[in-house]
Automatic annotation (TrEMBL):
Its EC number is 2.4.1.-. The lineage of its organism: Eukaryota, Metazoa, Ecdysozoa, Nematoda, Chromadorea. Keywords: Glycosyltransferase, Membrane, Transferase, Transmembrane, Transmembrane helix. The keyword Transmembrane applies. This is Glycosyltransferase family 92 protein. It comes from Caenorhabditis remanei (Caenorhabditis vulgaris).
């Protein structure tokens, strides 16, 4: 009976979708390449209010709304079943508990939420849910729950995870960053220190990242930033077989939920990308404070690629090495600026975003008419130290991005490089400048 009613709702709403939404959608999609609304900046920072939070989404029960999206986007009605599921983290919001998973290719699978109380005893009956959007499961809230797990059968095995509190009255941070997962064998310590110190100068207050694999040497400085409370890490354990670059979507899905309601604005960028303000006088934090339109859920920054032609040094060898090897000092040979929408990087309000992709928002929540807005390159840009050999980029993509302009030398902002260098030196010396 319930299923029939559901089918009816889906069929009715998908007819509406075809009539009204698809034409608009395809229009905006094809025109995106050529046109973007620009952000307007005011001199007063507008007082911040969370978008009003409600159990209902788009006028319906939130779990039904999720199910409807799963049908509209993936054509999944009947839930699939699997023999295993791997949990990553669990977050308690006002209206649901959101659990993230690492299992690959598991969209639209049936899972059961399992609730544990403070004595590690199960609370109530398992709640049947499903994996949607990718790497995400929504669970109904249940009184007395301290931990939650997922099982693939109603009474199957599960591992329970403590709930991370996201029932916050106001955001803890105005500006944070989600750094793409760390993996691969290139030494990262110096790239990592420069990235953190750069964003701290831009007013970033908190760093979230995922590690799939890192060397003990790199972990020294990474863990030092964890110790200072500036950085949080979730480890990604492989239980399927995937290539390392397939961790990025897990990272994005988890970080959207992780930062949601904890940070007002969140940057999504890679280790080798430095978003900076160009002619705009002020930090990124000052800039996002001045965005004067509550409908803006995403600010898109255009890219400029700076050719990185060598691997980073393996170990700290003293101050001179740093001025020689810090990416901002070493690499200058740059492409033109990517067209609007071309591999842009975003600063988003994750409370407004339902599904995020690498270069743009895939889907906003429906109540609020949210939009993405482009940041003018004269205000801000992504300076991307793009390794030429990694993924064969130099052969495959350089020619493509050369259509944005001929190669020429550009510099990291002169007003910041001295302070940045000083801060990188201080950190590197502090962590690595001791005799082993
Ligand atoms: C910026 O201001 C212009 C002119 O007032 C307006 O047309 C445009 O929609 C605004 N953009 C945003 C993103 O609010
Ligand atoms: C914002 O403030 C700056 C510096 O105080 C000033 O030059 C500028 O004209 C102001 N802009 C607006 C739109 O009020
Ligand atoms: C986990 O489930 C997936 C998809 O259902 C399956 O392909 C895989 O073999 C399973 N792995 C194990 C270890 O059971
Ligand atoms: C993990 O990282 C270390 C240090 O960079 C490297 O030696 C090792 O090959 C990596 N392992 C995998 C499985 O990528
Ligand atoms: C920039 O890189 C290109 C392509 O590798 C190279 O031909 C050119 O000489 C470089 N320019 C400078 C100023 O180093």
């Amino acid at each position: 009976m319930k299923t029939l009613l559901w089918l009816f709702i889906v069929a009715a709403s998908s007819t509406l979708m075809m009539l009204f939404v698809y034409p608009i959608f395809s229009f905006s999609k094809s025109s995106k390449e050529f046109f973007e609304i620009s952000v307007n900046i005011s001199n007063n920072s507008t007082p911040f209010l969370w978008p009003s939070s409600s159990y209902m989404i788009g006028g319906m029960d939130r779990f039904e709304w999720y199910r409807k999206q799963m049908y509209l986007k993936e054509k999944i009605i009947k839930l699939k079943t699997t023999s295993n599921i791997s949990t990553l983290s669990a977050y308690e919001f006002e209206h649901e508990i959101t659990v993230t998973i690492t299992s690959k290719d598991r969209m639209g699978f049936r899972v059961y939420c399992r609730y544990m109380d403070e004595s590690n005893l199960e609370v109530g009956e398992p709640f049947k849910s499903f994996t949607y959007p990718e790497y995400t499961v929504a669970c109904q809230k249940r009184f007395g729950t301290r931990k939650i797990g997922l099982s693939v059968e109603r009474n199957g095995e599960f591992q329970s995870f403590p709930l991370i509190n996201r029932m916050l009255k106001k955001p803890k941070y105005e500006l944070s960053i989600c750094i793409a997962p760390l993996y691969g064998s290139e030494p990262k310590w110096l790239m990592f220190i420069e990235m953190i110190e750069h964003y701290k100068l831009q007013g970033v207050q908190h760093f979230y990242t995922h590690i799939h694999n890192a060397s003990i040497y790199d972990l020294k400085v990474i863990n030092d930033y964890v110790g200072t409370g500036e950085l949080e890490i979730h480890y990604l354990l492989e239980r399927d077989r995937r290539t390392d670059d397939h961790w990025q979507m897990v990272h994005i899905a988890d970080c959207v939920v992780w930062s949601r309601f904890e940070s007002r604005w969140t940057i999504f960028a890679d280790l080798d990308e430095r978003i900076y303000m160009s002619n705009y006088i002020g930090t990124i934090r000052r800039y996002v404070q001045s965005v004067d339109n509550e409908r803006i859920g995403s600010l898109k920054f255009r890219q400029q690629w700076v050719l990185k032609t060598e691997q980073m040094p393996e170990k700290y060898e003293g101050e001179e090495e740093l001025t020689e090897w810090m990416p901002t000092h070493r690499w200058h040979n740059s492409t033109g600026i990517g067209a609007p929408g071309h591999t842009s990087k975003c600063i988003i309000d994750t409370s407004k975003v339902f599904v995020m992709w690498v270069h743009s928002v895939s889907q906003f929540f429906p109540d609020g008419n949210y939009i993405e807005a482009g940041v003018k390159p004269t205000d801000g840009l992504v300076r991307h130290y793009r390794d030429q050999s990694m993924g064969n980029w130099g052969d495959k993509w350089l020619r493509v991005v050369l259509r944005f302009g001929v190669l020429r030398n550009t510099d990291y902002p002169k007003s910041l490089i001295e302070k940045l260098t000083e801060n990188v030196k201080r950190k590197a010396e502090y962590v690595y400048g001791v005799v082993d």
